[in-house]
Automatic annotation (TrEMBL):
Matches recorded under Pfam families: RNase_H (PF00075)
Domain RNase H type-1: 1-76
Protein name: RNase H type-1 domain-containing protein
Compositionally biased region (Basic and acidic residues): 66-79
GO terms, molecular function: nucleic acid binding; RNA-DNA hybrid ribonuclease activity
Gene3D superfamilies: Ribonuclease H-like superfamily/Ribonuclease H
Region of interest (Disordered), residue spans: 54-79
Alphabetized SUPFAM superfamilies for the sequence: Ribonuclease H-like
Cited InterPro entries: RNaseH-like_sf, RNaseH_domain, RNaseH_sf
């Protein structure tokens, strides 16, 4: 028998409470499903009993503190480790039960299999955001954590919408106008006449607008 001791209720619930439902619904909409499924396989192929014990985090328990330290080191790696996530067909349940699926869930499942091509501007802005955060905090955030932060409830709805558009590069500035005949002049900054005005230019780089004053007050 083996007992896993952890302060993560998420991990315990994934492998116990939520597992039957996720398997019945074909893992549709489950974040980190490929890792959870591989973990379930590793546990099920054992013949001995497996149990879990939850403990309070940051309570001085040596094993838990060391686990947190290793998790932090892993999160700060510049590239992810290569993991063996192979699951034999005998253990790899496919599809969802008709008795457990709904129309909304089926639609979400279809959406998950549609190829997704990220926008070039979005990918570029995510990279800039990641490395800027790393430079300031010495921690490398994932794309998921950045998007989660952009939707944080402490930000007003207007601010969340502004950040979303900025990350996707959908504000009507700079390059947006270069493809519209007779409007090409709008791509220039109206203050310093810089070509292909960008949100970065507006917020931090333009020497003629009030951004330097605003940032000094913010600091």
């Amino acid at each position: 028998p083996i007992t896993f001791i952890t302060n993560s209720r998420y991990a315990i619930n994934c492998l116990t409470k939520h597992l039957p439902t996720w398997e019945d619904t074909g893992w549709i909409g489950v974040v980190n499903s490929k890792f959870i499924k591989a973990t379930v396989y590793q546990l099920r192929k054992r013949s001995a009993q497996t149990s879990f014990e939850w403990i309070k985090g940051h309570n001085g328990q040596n094993g838990n503190e060391q686990a947190d330290k290793l998790a932090k080191e892993g999160a700060n790696k510049p590239s992810a480790d290569e993991l063996d996530l192979h699951i034999p067909d005998d253990f790899n349940l496919q599809g969802a039960k008709l008795s457990a699926i709904t129309q909304a869930l089926a639609y979400k499942g279809i959406q998950e299999h549609i190829p997704f091509a990220p926008r070039r501007k979005t990918t570029s802005n995510l990279d800039v955001t990641q490395f800027t955060i790393q430079e300031l905090t010495r921690q490398l955030e994932t794309d998921t954590s950045i998007w989660t932060g952009c939707r944080h409830k402490d930000l007003s709805k207007k601010i969340r919408q502004f950040i979303y558009k900025a990350m996707h590069g959908t504000h009507r500035i700079g390059e947006y106008w270069t493809n519209i005949p007779t409007y090409e002049h709008r791509a220039q900054c109206t203050h310093c006449n810089a070509n292909n005005e960008s949100m970065e230019h507006i917020l931090t780089d333009c020497p003629q607008n009030a951004n330097s004053l605003i940032w000094s007050l913010a600091r």
